[in-house]
Design brief:
heterodimer; A: alpha+beta; BirA Bifunctional Protein, domain 2; 2 domains; seven-stranded mixed beta sheet; two-stranded antiparallel ribbon; B: alpha+beta
Chain lengths: ~375, ~850
């Protein structure tokens, strides 16, 4: 490096020659533009911005210029370095953006290949339907009561006004338990929970009792010896059949959809008087299609029995039948599931084939 | 109970039930008043269904081994228009006919019950122009062995036979146009087991007056007198104080021709009602029963020895009933006996051969009696004889029509079989009339929620036959003799409500006082079910019936408490006579079924009850109905009911993750079952302790016991015993768990109290501890926790090493200890000191040596 020289003419220093600087800038800009990768850019940057680059060398020469020449030379070299620096920074940004883009492309996965890392199970539609019904009734302010499946004969029959010789008692195909005089049966309906609730709970009483029940039927496409019922019971002062109808209408509409109302037909059950069979309006055709396969064109589907609680049943629970009245209803869950979800064969419900439950997920 | 529309028309009147009224309309009218429709028979066939004469018959053996008959049948002008005047060619598979026979042909365009529309079709190399029909195809019976040959069908009606000619309409000929409504009779409405009862309800529904068909024979019946056949009622052991027989009418016909044929109208009626015509005496007694509801019995008078005695059976007495079964009678069975000695009939249920009418009978005694419903019901059930008579008696037969029904039978028998009726008419016993009772006139309004005026109530009750006397706001009601089911106000309310129609009842949602929602236990159970599904298991249901063989398969020890099971007296299958004591008992079948259907990687669970017999084996008393049992009786009942805890069980087999582009399969292991149980407990906010144990049905070396903090064991989980896996035919290495949900969720609803969270920095340190192979990791971990004290936040087992460096029969457990005091920062020295205390405790408890 040369020392300060007051008589020094800048043009005489080759490195500071404006043409030379312009040429260095041109070369640097060309090199930046030519770099196609970040690595090439890095190498070009070393060559054109590094300590040994022409502009760095020129910059170093400025110190040796006379003060009068320094300013102009400094301005020229500084401007040149600035342009080069900007060009490299811009190219750097471009190449980084390209790289980032490329990485995203390279990291593409076939998102349709899904490892069953932790497969989800499923609930059984009977359980889900029971829970759904429980929500309908708790929403109305009712409570959910339960009772044993192996039940005392007294609760299953006598407390419900089935006398020992009542024809209905023989009509129900009951599983009796050993020994013969044990006084125990597999409950044939959820109705004994009514009696238990009336004995145990305070009035007024509004309860729904879902559960498993047992009859000695053979399994076929529409029957199963082990099935599920939902029983409803309300006991308070002044309850009427109109209240029963109102409750059933609401229940049917909540479970099967708006517009599904219920119909009562006179019937007989030992534990209710008056008694009725309950049909609900066909949710498929709403009674509008005489060719409907689901309801056979009748517009109605039989679902269960109901009525005003028999005085003897109230009395068996120590309730004054002159002061309180009640209504009760009971219906099959399987039938509701078959209808609501188009299940054609009872076997699918009882056999436990996982493919059946898996259709329903965890909400119904 | 069937009811032919034409018979109803006869009884209710052609104005109310015109020819144009269909079976469906009749059924709808009956449904309105509470008689449920079971079905409608007949009227389903549309023509052409005609008489045909077989002209040619060519048997043609077929490749399938069958021989069909290619027939040319003259079906008269009607059918032959189809084939330009030539006889119809029809293929027939039956062989019970010959050339010249008259048969029944359905021709193209006709429709058989099903409905099966008939068209000409190509079959067995011919175009078959219709079909030759069997009785079954026409809905006339079950006989499908051959086609109807009219010369046999009308063998007893030569006048009909003589009039038959090809082309004649067979729908009318065979009575196929008749519609018969079948109703389901509920147990309270015994009266509806008669045309009299159904017609009365139809008249009620249609709003027309009803003429009781029993009125005429009632008027014609002679007064009882002493010159009739001797009958003595000698019930020395009435059930519940009720006389077994409270009325017995006997009438005698002499010189009757019992071999006389029943006329076709009688046979038709009996057939329409679903019974088979048998003989004049049987057909007439059946007809009268179907019309009036009063079962009758006909004896050969000459086989009786002079008197009839109604008494209870003697111990050991036997009777061979008409179904040819010798029955040992029970002292509770009520009998009709000859002179008090020979048993003739189990009263109201079924007779024996001894004194029945046969072809040689000329003198006949007709019995019409009224028996105690309970006595008949018990006998019918005891001997498994649900006869037509028993069905009616146990639901209550009208005790005031006894003599009239006998009169009607006697009239018909004499009219159709000749002979003369004795002037003597026996009528003994005195049925107790139904009690009158009172009802508040506004009870129907109050119970139904619909206004009924006293007038409307009174009218409705009178229309069903009640006598009603109004006394201010109270009605005094005497039910008609055929309605023993009417005993209380609500019984009458039903009658009033159905007379207006249940459709009139408004819909009013009652306001419940507001409940507490689900109980804590109910919410916990839902959470368990949802968590198991989240864990990848699928919920299934199984029947709770199992067997002792299943206990063997599960490798239960001889004295395992779970072998004590509740036994079903009348199981569905002798292979599964007991109730499950664990859910795995029956869930195993579901798992196997899924594997069998190709789901090799199966994870199923079930929530359900298990049944534990009471220790005492005490019996549940059955107190009388209609009143609240005393507290101690209720306690006895409840004490006799087995404990029925709710369990959740799961079975996992195959892989928890299948092999694929993502890597190899992950087989289900014993630990997976434990992890599932822990997850369920965590969902409930419980932390279970896991200890190694041996417990059937699990692999003795691969079973964990899971317990609550207080030590209550709530679950077992692990790999099933290889022998159990074999016996249950499950995939090798199947894992399972069984949770006692009642125990696990006993604390549900307890309110969790939050701990303060420390925000101090954590300090971590690792230790490797060498212990004997049989020392469970959980024991080491527990000791570490105990030794480290409160500052320890977490212990993680991150590696297990076995090999030369630790020696045979030993393993090295590597733990990472995380310390975080509540309010200070630990120095390195403090961390080391705490770690050393933890290690020292582990050494003391498990013999662990720290591996440096």
């Amino acid at each position: 490096m040369s020392g300060p020289n007051t008589s020094y003419d800048p043009v005489e220093v080759a490195a500071l020659d404006p043409a030379a600087i312009d040429a260095a800038v041109e070369q640097a800009l060309a090199a930046a533009a030519a770099a196609s990768t970040l690595e090439e850019l890095k190498a070009a940057r070393g060559a054109h911005q590094g300590d040994k680059s022409p502009l760095a060398l020129a910059n170093r020469e400025i110190g040796a210029l006379p003060p009068s020449a320094k300013a102009e030379a400094g301005k020229r070299v500084g401007g040149a370095r600035g342009r080069v620096g900007q060009a490299f920074a811009a190219r750097q940004a471009e190449l980084e953006a390209e790289r980032d883009e490329r990485i995203l492309v390279e990291e593409r996965l076939d998102m349709t290949v899904v490892p069953p890392r932790r497969p989800l199970g499923a609930r059984h539609p009977i359980s889900l339907t029971i829970e759904r019904i429980e929500e309908i009734f708790t929403g109305l302010g009712w409570e959910i009561a339960e009772g044993p499946e192996v039940e005392a004969e007294w609760f299953n029959f006598d407390s419900l006004n089935f006398g020992p010789d009542h024809p209905a008692r023989a009509m129900q195909d009951t599983f009796f338990l050993q020994p013969a005089d044990a006084g125990l049966v597999m409950r044939t309906h959820t109705s004994p929970v009514q009696s238990r609730a009336m004995l145990e709970r305070q009035l007024p009483l509004f309860i729904a009792c879902p559960g498993k029940v047992f009859r000695t039927d053979d399994l076929d496409a529409t029957h199963t010896p082990v099935f599920h019922q939902i029983e409803g019971l309300a006991v308070a002062e002044g309850l009427t059949m109109a209240n029963l109808k109102g409750t059933l209408d609401r229940f049917a509409a909540e479970l099967f959809g708006p517009g599904v109302t219920t119909r009562l037909r006179p019937s007989f059950f030992p534990f209710t008087e008056p008694s009725a069979e309950m049909d609900f309006k066909c949710p498929i055709c709403l009674g509008q299609d005489s060719g409907c396969r689901v309801c056979g064109g009748t517009g109605w589907i039989e679902w269960g029995g109901c009525g005003m609680v028999n005085r003897n049943v109230l009395a068996a629970a120590g309730i004054d039948p002159d002061r309180y009245t009640g209504f009760a209803f009971g219906m099959g869950i399987e039938r509701a599931v078959m209808l609501r979800h188009g299940v054609a064969d009872m076997f699918d419900i009882v056999e436990g084939d996982v493919r059946f439950s898996q259709q329903f997920g965890m909400e119904i | 109970m069937r009811a032919p529309v034409s018979w109803l028309r006869e009884l209710v009147g052609a104005e109310a039930v015109p020819e144009s009224m269909t079976g469906e309309q009749v059924a709808a009218a009956l449904v309105k008043v509470g008689l449920e429709e079971e079905g409608i028979h007949g009227g389903e066939i549309t023509g052409p269904l005609v008489v045909g004469r077989v002209l040619e018959l060519t048997p043609e053996p077929q490749k399938n081994g069958k021989t069909i008959n290619w027939c040319q049948v003259d079906v008269g002008e009607h059918g032959q228009r189809v084939t330009e005047g030539t006889p119809q060619g029809i293929v027939c598979g039956a062989h019970n006919f010959a050339v010249g026979d008259l048969v029944v042909c359905v021709l193209p365009g006709g429709v058989l019950p099903g409905p099966f529309p008939i068209s000409a079709r190509k079959t067995y190399g011919h175009v078959s122009n219709g079909m030759i029909c069997s009785a079954k195809e026409l809905g006339l019976g079950e006989d499908h062995d051959g086609i109807i040959v009219l010369s046999e069908w009308f063998a007893d009606q030569p006048e009909v036979l003589a009039s038959l000619e090809p082309g004649q309409d067979a729908i009318a000929l065979l009575g196929l146009a008749e519609e018969v409504v079948e109703v389901n009779v509920t147990p309270d409405r015994g009266y509806a087991f008669s045309m009299r009862g159904i017609a009365r309800d139809l008249a009620l529904s249609l709003g027309v007056d009803f003429t009781d068909p029993i009125d005429a024979p009632r008027a014609a019946a002679p007064a009882a007198n002493d010159s009739g056949y001797e009958v003595r009622l000698e019930d020395d052991a009435p059930i519940n104080g009720v006389e077994g027989c409270d009325r017995y009418v006997a009438r005698v016909i002499r010189g009757i021709d019992v071999t006389a044929q029943s006329p076709s109208w009688l046979k038709a009626r009996v057939t329409q009602m679903g019974m088979r015509p048998i003989s004049l005496a049987v057909d007439v007694t059946n007809y009268v029963m179907l019309l009036t509801g009063q079962p009758l019995h006909a004896f050969d008078l000459d086989k009786l020895s002079g008197s009839i005695v109604v008494r209870r059976a003697r111990a050991g007495e036997k009777l061979t009933t008409l179904d040819d079964i010798e029955r040992t009678l029970d002292p509770e069975d009520l009998l009709i006996t000859d002179a008090g000695e020979r048993p003739l009939v189990i009263a109201g249920v079924m007779g024996g051969e001894t004194c029945e009418i046969d072809e040689g009978s000329t003198n006949v005694l007709i019995e019409a009696a009224h028996f105690d419903p309970i006595s008949v019901a018990r006998s019918a059930r005891r001997h498994r004889l649900p006869s037509e008579a028993a069905k009616r008696f146990e639901r209550g037969v009208d005790p005031e029509i006894t003599a009239a029904a006998a009169q009607l039978a006697v009239e018909l028998l004499v009219q159709l079989g000749g002979g003369t009726v004795d002037a003597g008419a026996t009528d003994v016993g005195a049925p107790v009339p139904l009690d009158a009772f009172t009802m508040a006139a506004d009870l129907p309004s109050r119970l139904v929620g619909l206004e009924f005026s006293t007038d409307e109530v009174t009218t409705a009750l009178r229309r069903i036959g009640c006598e009603v006397a109004a006394d201010g706001e109270t009605l005094r009601v005497t039910p008609p003799s055929w309605r023993p089911d009417l005993r209380t106000g609500p019984d009458l309310v039903e009658e009033v409500a159905r007379s207006r129609g249940y459709d009139a009842i408004p819909s009013v949602l009652p306001q419940a006082p507001g409940g507490q929602g689900l109980t804590a236990g109910q919410r916990a159970r839902r959470l368990v079910a949802a968590t198991l599904a989240q864990q990848g298991l699928t919920e299934v249901l199984s029947y709770p019936f199992t067997s002792a063989a299943r206990h063997d398969a599960l490798q239960y020890a001889a004295d395992d408490a779970r072998r004590r099971a509740v036994t079903v007296a009348n199981p569905l299958s002798d292979e599964a006579p007991i109730l499950r004591t664990s859910v795995l008992d029956t869930l195993a079948d579901v798992a196997r079924r899924n594997v069998g259907r190709g789901m090799g990687d199966v994870a199923v669970y079930e929530l359900g009850l298990v049944y534990e017999p009471t220790e005492s084996g005490a019996k549940a008393p059955i107190p009388t109905l209609g009143q609240r049992p005393a507290d101690e009786v209720l306690d006895q009942i409840n004490a006799a009911v087995p404990a029925q805890p709710r369990h959740a069980a799961g079975i996992l087999a195959g892989a928890s993750r299948t092999a694929g582009p993502w890597g190899p399969a992950e087989p289900v292991g014993a630990a997976d079952a434990v992890a599932v149980v822990l997850a369920v407990a965590r969902a409930l906010g419980e932390t279970l302790t896991v200890t190694q144990t041996e417990h059937a049905p699990f692999h003795p070396g691969r079973c964990a016991e899971l317990a609550l903090a207080d030590g209550t064991v709530v679950a077992h989980a692990g790999e099933l015993h290889p022998k159990a896996v074999d016996a249950l035919e499950l995939p090798a290495r199947t894992a399972a768990f069984e949770i006692d949900l009642d125990a696990l969720t006993a604390g549900a609803g307890e309110v969790t109290q939050a701990r303060k969270l420390s925000t101090m920095p954590v300090a971590r340190t690792d230790v490797a501890l060498v212990v004997a192979e049989d020392v469970p990791a959980a024991t080491v971990e527990a000791a570490l926790r105990q030794g480290a004290g409160e500052q320890l936040e977490a212990v993680e087992l991150f590696d297990i090493y076995r090999g030369d460096q630790v020696g045979e029969g030993r393993k090295s457990l590597a733990y990472r200890l995380t310390f975080r005091p509540v309010d200070t920062t630990l120095t390195t020295a403090e961390v080391s000191a705490t770690r050393d205390r933890a290690v020292a405790e582990a050494a003391k408890a498990t013999g662990a040596e720290q591996r440096m």
